[in-house]
Amino acid sequence: KVPDSRGDSDGSRRGSLCDRHCAAINNAQGDLGDLGCHLHRPRVTPATSTPSCCQQHSEEVCESCVVKTTLTAENAVEANKLSNNYKFGFKKWKSHVTARPWEDRSEIVKELYSDLNVIRGSGGSTLTCGNVLYLLLFGWWLSLLYILVAAVMFITIMGAPYGWLCCNLAGYFFWPFGKVIQKVEVPKSHQACAAGAGESSALLGGPTRRRWRPPCCLGSGYWHHASTAVWLCLGYPVLALAHGLVCVTAWLLIVLIPVAKLSARATSRVLLLPPERALIRRLRMTEVPLEGEVILCCYRAANPYYYKYAVDGINVFAVNLLPLVLVALVLGYVDSPNHLTGSAVKFTLALLSIMPLSYYIGMAIASISAQSNFAVGAVVNATFGSITELTFYITALIKGSREGNRCYAEVVKSALTGTLVGCVLFVPGLCMVIGGIRHQEQRFNSRSAGVSSALLFLSVGGVFAPTLFSKVYGKLVCGECHNVTQNPLGHYLCHNCHFDLMDNNGTLYYSHVQPLVYTVSILLPAAYLIGLFFTLKTHTHIYDIHISDCHMPGHHHSAVVHWSRWRALVILLLSTLCMSACADLATEHISPILTNSTISQYFIGVTVLAMVPELPEIVNGIQFALQNNLSLSIEIGNCIAVQVCMLQIPILVLFTIFYPTNFTLVFSDLHVYASMFSVVLMNYIFMDGKCDYFQGTVLVMVYFILLAVYFFAPSPSGC
């Protein structure tokens, strides 16, 4: 209902009405956290429809409702995180930094976090591909193992009750779907004895947590029974080890996490029950289950939505990749002589370890920024926003300087160019393609994209200015020339040609090129600061982000953060330290790959070394695009590209002043042409503020064409 109000409060009421309308549309789309909405005037006639917001109020109110992007958040911390996503220079982060209210989650997500102890009325058919996969991977040998353990229990005679239990569990774990394991109640005649036997101990999984007391009936006490000792010594350890193996394997496969829960619950609850208290039965649709606690009830072995699963706010992929960091560090520093593995394996492990560490760094930065004021967030983003790439680049330059190998500097230049080209073409193009599959046409804020585009033009021109200067005034030197026409005045065919800046004892470089490099390295960060001041202080209306105060029923105003500021800071520092160690290992073992590989060093730099650290950012961009928030997807690529030119390269130049290396701000022609063409094409695509999957396909195809050029290009001079 629209309140009938007059006076000075009319404008504020109109605005809040539009905000509630936007929030209602967001809630109807199923995303209460991130997706903004734009209201458009509906084309309806007043005679047949209810007057809309725009028809009831003035035109200027409608315009504010059209332009404004209204975001709904569960609490103040999430509101800060969402607002930071739209700020230039801040890391864009999709995942929540606070615990979402349980009632606000979808039924699919609720099922991911539920325990396997709920009986559903109708589970449907249990013959699915995931269940068959469980049978082939785990079911058959688990069942066989239970039969062998049952035979051992029968041989001991005293363990016969557990032998019968293992026989029943063999059939259950062969195909557990549609079956239930219940903990039956003790008969009344045995309640007094059972109460003294410690039924409510935590090990038995009872509902209370009272400390176990010695049994009053030694003849029938559970823990003093001889069969229990035999079971805990001979049967339980073997089965617990087997279920542990199943649990770890299923967890790593992610889609089989229900199997991991099944095995963990079986080890901690089922196998510790007295045999007479475990009831295994098959459920039927019309059958009423018996009274008693349900311990296990599983219907599906696989769930494809488990890619959304998070542990303490950390995505399951980042959790599973974290042990890879430990393996890479142990192998890299313990097996220095390469007795266990070769350099290629260690390089691959070190490079893959950068992905989870990048995720933890991004999560920590987003958590600190969301819980702090603007100044602290800006400092943290500026300090640690590019720490992943800079750590690798500086480590590679140090190693190249110690070995006197110019190839490392060329690889760093290739990685810088690959990051620039990939974030300008591949990241937004891929987001357009994937987002265009769900949405026919996507719109974005062309004004905010225009700011990033202008900074990109400025940064690319500044970065490549010393290169263009050297092409004009440098001396062309060729390594090998052949006379094609056998005539001294004829044509010559030359190879390995480059512009020599060190002619006449380096007069051109030290007197002209190097001062130009230092000048550019000062102007680019200054332009970056001006861009920050422009977008965050004087022209904040470009983004026009409004955090709605409309909280739907079930939203909580109090925030339960996953990581506190101190915890996020500790994780940020530890991740940065591990990142430095992994970067050191990667540069230590990249030399054999660069020397013995038939692939061009250009290609290795622009693909593997450039895009692997950016995979978490690419995933964030895809998630934003799927929710029709392409503005953030584009800003992710643009911000990384701007930071490469305006922050990372000046920092590398500053580093070479204090630690001389072979790095000079003179790029090859291929890097110059690829970067400039990419920026021009991106600005042409983004001019109209809307796009579809076809335009995204064009960007991706151009990126792959450039990769093909790098693949077939000869290795740079000095490698």
From TrEMBL:
Residues 129-179 form the Inner membrane component domain. It is a multi-pass membrane protein. GO terms for biological process: intracellular calcium ion homeostasis. Residues 345-465, 568-710 form the Sodium/calcium exchanger membrane region domain. Keywords: Antiport, Calcium, Calcium transport, Ion transport, Membrane, Phosphoprotein, Transmembrane, Transmembrane helix, Transport. It comes from the Eukaryota. Pfam families: Na_Ca_ex, YccF. One of its GO terms (cellular component) is endomembrane system. It is found in: Endomembrane system. The chain crosses the membrane at residues 132-155, 229-259, 314-334, 340-362, 374-395, 415-437, 449-469, 516-536, 568-587, 599-619, 640-659, 665-686, 693-713. GO terms for molecular function: calcium:proton antiporter activity. InterPro entries: CaH_exchang (IPR004713), NaCa_Exmemb (IPR004837), NCX_ion-bd_dom_sf (IPR044880), YccF (IPR005185). This is VNX1 protein. The gene is Vnx1.
